[in-house]
Specification:
With 530 residues, the chain is an alpha/beta fold. Helices cover 59% and strands 7% of the residues. The chain has two domains: 4-382, no CATH class; 409-524. Helix 2 runs parallel beside helix 19, helix 6 (105-126) runs parallel beside helix 8 and helix 7 (128-136) runs antiparallel to helix 18 (337-346).
């Protein structure tokens, strides 16, 4: 049965000549090509200047293992992603080289695919300009950071977009069986990249429950397309989940990432804060649209609105799931929520006359393009002048190194530790692994010291030691410190805290240097060990 919009669309296209349709197709091809050129120019420049950090070093090291060694590493919870992610990373490096772009190539392509999917998903319902809004918006959000991050989150996002397109076409196109098979394969691909991708079943199941209540018909083929890939990955997930719980039991992981009811609001802020001014502008435009263009209001599919609402609700569903199975709440696992926001932002600006867009929609699309263009121009200007992009990784509260030609610019003070006989202790595991990867020479003297066995990164580094770059095994803080006659302390504010603790125990502070938020101290034990 055709919706009112579909009937209107067919009447519009029925009155158009072949030449008009051809011109419209050429316009769309031109727009999509221009977007693709802009996107790859932007993200490849970003990827080329962003050095691998803690999580990405894990990816790079594991992706270069043979399948047997990789499975051993995953079974010991070195990382908790299914194997397909590492094979895709290895394929990216085979295509583009073992470098900063090659390791991130799957994510770069996946985020681009998501943007195109949002264009196709929204444009089919609301017109070209609304599709452009949905396509440009992801580049203006917090999710864009993961377009050039060698982790599976952008891959899951891209496959979520492809799943939505397949689901939409399964309702509205011929060869329904083919589209359902593609839907199932896209979901399976997402599940094989990240365990939390199982959440993608929720929005599709919610939309199908709505459709079932409306038509009073159980759509067995579509439910099979959702359930079969989820069941297929259970045998693979079980050993991964068991290994993770065994490694992290008793640590502070769940204290650091608690599945609390306040987390969804913080996640929405993380995702949308970069686009805050754009959203305010969009609300003002929507008000103008309602006042002056209400006669051209779009009538959209309720089924698709329910799907979008399901994606918007994923942060809340994740809290419920986290509390039920004792799982951490990590923002980057929920990037697929962006699909709901793309729909929510773009569709209200759609037009019932698909070939005659609203002026407010054109204005919003122009602002999104100018925002993304200004960001790229600023990036290019900084790159020309040797200044890196300012990147902040939210889950670890870490500013990442991006200075062109200098992966250790943020650790410059460390080179002042010139006495080769004195070990260097740090309580920052994120920077520890970064230094080990990019400066193996100094890693012989560098130690990560943790408060105790409940420290998450203490356990993780002890496990990763077999599979990553060569480094000293992590040590317990007081055991290590008390065993040294003299020691360098290097890091951020935690160094000041360590100095206070040591002075209270009678240690002597021989020197303290501070530079750009980093501290390097030499402390001496008044009772040197024998």
């Amino acid at each position: 049965m055709q919706t009112e919009l579909e009937s209107s669309t067919s009447r519009v296209f029925g009155n158009r000549s072949g030449r008009s349709l051809f011109s419209r197709s050429r316009l769309e091809l031109l727009l999509l090509s221009a977007f693709s050129i802009f996107y790859f120019a932007d993200v490849l420049l970003r990827a080329s200047e962003k050095y691998f950090w803690y999580d990405e070093i894990t990816t790079v090291c594991l992706s270069r293992l043979n399948p047997g060694a990789l499975w051993v590493a995953l079974r010991t919870a070195v990382d908790n992603n299914p194997p397909l992610f590492y094979w895709l990373t290895r394929a990216g490096e085979a295509l583009a080289g073992e470098n900063k772009i090659g390791a991130r190539l799957p994510e770069i392509i996946a985020f681009w695919a998501f943007c195109l999917c949002m264009y196709g998903f929204v444009r089919r319902r609301a017109g070209i300009v609304a599709g452009l809004i949905a396509m440009l918006f992801p580049m203006c959000t917090g999710a864009f950071f993961y377009a050039y991050e060698a982790r599976p989150h952008a891959i899951v996002l891209g496959l979520a977009g492809l799943s939505a397109v397949c689901w939409q076409n399964a309702y509205e196109r011929k060869r329904r069986t083919l589209w359902l098979v593609l839907l199932s394969l896209c979901l399976f691909g997402a599940f094989m990249n990240h365990c939390f991708a199982l959440l993608l079943v929720f929005p599709f199941a919610l939309a199908e429950l709505f459709q079932m209540a409306k038509t009073r018909r159980f759509d067995l083929p579509l439910w099979a397309a959702l359930i079969i890939p989820a069941l297929a990955v259970v045998p693979l997930y079980l050993p991964l989940v068991q290994a993770a719980h065994k490694l992290w039991q008793g640590t502070q992981l769940f204290t650091a990432f608690p599945p609390s009811w306040s987390q969804p609001a913080r996640f929405y802020n993380f995702l949308l804060n970069p686009a805050f001014l754009i959203l305010i502008f969009a609300l003002l435009l929507l008000l103008v649209h309602e006042i002056f263009e209400s006669s051209n209001r779009l009538i959209f599919s309720a089924r698709e609105a329910i799907l979008a609402a399901g994606f918007l609700a994923l942060p809340i569903v994740s809290v419920v799931l986290g509390k039920a199975v004792n799982a951490p709440y990590v923002y980057r696992y929920l990037l697929s929520t962006l699909l709901g926001f793309c729909f929510l932002l773009a569709v209200p600006f759609g037009s019932a006359r698909l070939l005659k867009p609203n002026l407010t929609a054109v204005a919003l699309a122009a602002v999104l393009f100018l925002y993304a263009g200004a960001s790229f121009s600023r990036l290019a200007w900084h790159r020309i002048h040797g200044v890196g992009e300012i990147l902040f990784e939210s889950s670890s509260s870490t500013f990442l190194d991006t200075t062109p030609g200098n992966p250790l610019a943020n650790e410059a003070l460390l080179w002042s530790a010139s006495d080769q006989k004195i070990p260097i202790a740090t309580r920052n595991a994120i920077q520890f692994l970064h230094i080990v990867y990019y400066a193996p020479g100094i890693s012989r003297r560098l130690y990560y010291v943790a408060p105790g066995e409940t420290d998450v990164l203490y356990r993780w580094l002890g496990t990763f030691e077999r599979f990553g770059p060569a480094y000293n095994a992590p040590e317990k803080y007081w055991s290590f410190i008390n065993a040294q006659p003299r020691c360098y302390l290097w890091g951020g504010p935690e160094v000041v805290q360590s100095i206070s603790e040591l002075l209270a125990r009678g240690w002597q502070l021989r020197s303290l240097q501070t530079f750009q938020g980093q501290n390097l101290a030499v402390v001496e034990n008044p009772r040197p060990p024998e």
